[in-house]
Amino acid sequence: MKPDALTLSLSLALLGGCSTLSDPQAGRAESLAMPADWAVPAETLDLSMLPQDAGLLDLFRQPQLKQLVDETLNNNLDLQHTALRLRQQQLLIAPERAARQPELTGSLTSQRSKEKTISNQQTLALTLNWELDVWGRLADGQAAAQQTAAAQKLDYDAARHSLAARTVQSWLDISLRQQIIKTEQQWLKSSENNRAVILDRYQSGLGNLADLATAKAATARVQASLIERQNHQRVALRQLNLLRGVSNNSEPPEITVTPDITTPPISLPGTVLARRPDLQAAYLRIQAADHSAAKAYKQLLPGFSLQATLSNTGQDLDQLLKGSPLWSLLGQLTAPLFNSGRLKAQADIAQLDAELSYLNYQQTLLDAVNEVDNGLDLEATLAQQEKALAQALQHSQTSLDHYRSLYRDGVGDILNLISAEQTAFEARIQLLQVRQNRLSNRITLGLALGMNI
Questions:
Q1: Is the pLDDT of residue 156 over 60?
Q2: For residue 10, what pLDDT band results from cuts at 50, 70 and 90?
Q3: Is 146 within the bounds of a domain?
């Protein structure tokens, strides 16, 4: 039920409109033309040669992550609700399909009456009704239901991909924050060591109480930051468990080595966006709305139906299977003559729904282009930030070692040491945060490019 990939790719740049719409909005579609260099990545991107059908989990080199994602997809309650709604929509196809087929009904009636004497009459009848789909109205109804179900299946796929991406990003957030927490714990330990050194120097007559108070203040600030970050970690763990559909406090696998998440592969714009389930679903909803509008307009046309009846009558039930049954064949032509404009209004509403689905497709397409643009731009920006912060960490660590050596030799100032220490640890934390943002953005970019799980 998915649209042909080539058809969808060509429609990404310019959609001509629906066949039943009087105004195809062709002029508005011209604004959807994509820039010639839209999918050309910046030179700063180190793009891998992943296959075009690679999934989100293929960007990782963390085998234990797949188990976490599978658990989330199996247990997430919102995804289960989406699956049930999909099942409901799929069941709606059956009535539309059945409307195009003959309908056979059986009936058994029993009548007892009295005039002069009491008489019984039993009637057994088989009736065959068949509406001839001369104008294709019933076919349009079936096609609309099928396209809607196919679109909802794509919505379900998109929900699965989005949930997998959120799970991976939450896992990244928790794991990288744990590394930041360890860094702040090291910072706190270093601050406490500074305070102990200052106290020893003071007791030896080489320092003063002001230096000790300064060290205590620095330690308290680090401790406050650590407490806040640990609280955020507990909240993030509960949020991930909510995604996983579990109520326990079990923790996900921790990153022992910072993962190298590959940049998603980039290809031609039409090929990129044609993989997105949300865009495919929007395209199918145009077709479904088009069929619904056609069905509504065909309600204004005459209808043709056939009815065949086979019946037998007797006083007792055992007489119903004896003798020659009666049969009849009825052809019927019906046409709406006067209904106060009800059918015409319903047809106009259906046409407006088709136009709305077309505009929704345009908006989905624009959002898709914008998401990919933002992801590519952010990847380049974060790569530059990560490089600059790595250099900053290297220089600040050199500065810290210098001031620490001076202070231990008794020729340095405590304020310079604390300032250098703060600069070094903050640079390390900022570098971890940028790496976290960059890895998370690559998952977002992969999702924008239509990568599946």
A1: yes
A2: very low
A3: yes
| Phi/psi-derived region of residue 314, left when phi > 0, alpha when psi is between -120 and 50, beta in every other case | beta
Examine the pLDDT at 141 and tell me if it is beyond 80. yes
CATH value at residue 89 = 1.20.1600.10
Question: Which residue did the predictor score with more confidence, 135 or 270?
Answer: 135
pLDDT the model gives residue 431: 93
Tally of structural domains, the chain: 1
- Determine the pLDDT at residue 318: 67
| Residue 15 is assigned to a structural domain of this protein | no
Examine residue 400 and state whether it is found in any structural domain, yes or no.
yes
Mean pLDDT computed over 414-420: 84
In a domain, 201, yes or no: yes
